[in-house]
Known about the structure:
- By secondary structure, this protein is an all-alpha fold.
- The chain contains 19 helices and 3 strands.
- β2 and β3 form a beta hairpin.
Amino acid sequence: MASEYVLDALISSGIDERTARVIMERMHRFGLMEEIEGLYSAYKAIKDRLENLKDPAIREEMRKIEEDMKKLITDIGRDPFFSKLAHLSLRVEIPLSAVVPYRSRIAGIRERLDSMNYTLSTAEPKEIYGEISEVEKEIEKRESQGMDVSFLKDRINRLKGIAGRGTPYTRRYVEAEVKSIRDKLVKLDDIVARRERLISLLPKVKEICSYLDSISGTDAFSLLFNSMSNRLISLAINSEEELNSADGDLSNFDSLTNVLLQIYPLFERKLNLFEYLDMIEGYEGLSDAIKGILKNEDLPKELRAARALEILKDKIRGIDEFVEARKELKRLYPFWKSYIMDELRNKGYAVRVDELEKIPKRWRHMIARMLSEENEDIIFENGFIVHSRAYSDEILRKEMERMKEEIETIKGIVSGLMKLGVNLSDKLLEIEQIELKFDEISKGEPGVRIIAEVKQARKLINELKDWIISKFAS
Length: 474
């Protein structure tokens, strides 16, 4: 506020605040305060208009006016009629002759401010036209590069029509419009650069999409590629709405392309993305989830592919990490292969993959698949690794005979303990369930499911045997 400006000027000259306020009160009595406040308001209004004006002569004149205003206030504060009587009663009269020189100086400063207003009214349109001319040259430069910028040229023509009004509002409006047009040009340049980059990547993106289709059994990724490439090649911007739409589309294409480029090293090495995901701890079920999205017939195929890539965006880890993992896996594969074969021999040529405790959990399924692909006698199905020998009727018959003998022995022990008063009805129920399982197994044809049933029966019998040993031991 103007009164605060006067108070600050008085205090800055070395006058204490109490005395400065008494001086200001005396200035009010003679109308000086109101006139100085009017000067300050006029000065402030002009200064606000100078924010973006580049004319050094006008700025220098405004600096001198501000200095003269402060000197005027300081001189009043040091005037004996205002300062030496400052602590006396406000009723003390001040001669009119003491006020006249200050009024004359105020009139002089006001005349300079009026002159500055006139100067600005002629300088501002020139400044405004200069800014419009600069941005118009930027538009013409883009036009010479083959860009369609007609919608921005229309805005420039409208600005030229109002620039000559020379009002503060006009200047603020033109400045805002010029800034907006410059922002649009920056966005347009960015869109052109991003479009060129994405078009240059289309051949590589097409290869990746074909690869993803081949491993997922779909054509969704190729359809997504076709949609992206058609939009990129035919992209045209004839309005601000189309500019914003293109910006949004390219942001989406950027995101999808970046995910696809992360997958590219897998394609180069002829590796299966879904096997890669299965290797990563914590991503269990991710491959199935993605395949489920790709089969969702409620969505257009392009959208299915886009959603699958969106899920992968934050999931795909650094390819270097994967390559190192593959190297480690290949290095240890001979050891794990030997370990699995030993387990198969020791456990009736069938073993659950989850029971391979010496192999890291995240690599068990991968190793099982590798082994089944390498050895035609090994089958990996339903979580079981099974050797072809396990299908032998003779092997199954002998294993069933052993288990039946063992279950009869266990049943006899349990019955004997029950005669002694031990309540073992729950164990007897378990035995009956195993015997029912024997009946189911004997009715089935040899296969992975039957092998699994035999394995389950063997596990139950072993648990009963362990219980009996612990019971007698106690």
